[in-house]
Amino acid sequence: MLQYLLLLIVLWCAWWYKVTRVPKNFPPGPRFPLPVIGDLHLFGGNIYMGFRKFRKRYGDIYGFSMGPRKVVALSTYELIQEAFSKPVFAGRAPLPVWFQLKDGISLASDIPGKRALTMIRWQ
Q1: DSSP calls for 71-105
Q2: Residue 21 carries which DSSP code?
Q3: Residue 63, helix vs strand vs coil
Q4: Rg of the Cα trace of the chain?
Q5: Residue 63's pLDDT is what?
Q6: Phi and psi for 28 in degrees, rounded to 5?
Q7: What is the pLDDT, as a whole number, of residue 59?
Q8: Which tens digits make up the pLDDT trace of 65-97?
Q9: First vs last Cα of the chain: how many Å apart?
Q10: How far apart, in whole angstroms, are the C-alpha atoms of residue 89 and residue 92?
Q11: Neighbouring C-beta atoms of residue 14, cutoff 10 Å
């Protein structure tokens, strides 16, 4: 019984390390997310005010966890315009559900980079 408990603790520690580890070039932000909800508890009841609080604390570009997924937020119009004018940032992150339902093509969740760039028109 003790061996199973130790194995469970070791597996949980390995999983926790994997979840909380961030890449070297990841922007500043909270570093220790909760297992299921990530950093969403730090936003409080008002999501908009949570984003403002993060911007004030971490700057115009910050990263946080939404559940198990790492997210980068851009806070100014100029940063958003610069990021989405590059092909590497065009489109959205792929959602596995749409790959199963629509063979990876869906206007609701995933627009490939070149098509997205032609659809974005900055004022």
Answers
A1: EEEE-SHHHHHHHHTSGGG-S----HHHHHHSTT-
A2: -
A3: strand
A4: 18
A5: 92
A6: -65, 155
A7: 93
A8: 888 788 889 999 999 888 888 877 766 666 665
A9: 65
A10: 8
A11: 10
Q: What one-letter code names the amino acid at 16?
A: W
Tell whether the torsion through CA atoms of 32, 39, 44 and 73 is positive or negative.
Answer: positive
The H or E element spanning position 16 is helix 2-20
Tokens 């098509």 belong to residue: 115
Rounded Cα–Cα distance for residues 49 and 46 (Å):
5
Contacts within 8 Å (CB) and 24+ apart, 64-71: 64/29, 64/30, 64/33, 64/38, 64/39, 65/19, 65/30, 65/33, 65/38, 65/39, 66/38, 66/39, 66/40, 67/36, 67/37, 67/38, 67/40, 68/19, 68/38, 69/38, 69/93, 70/22, 70/26
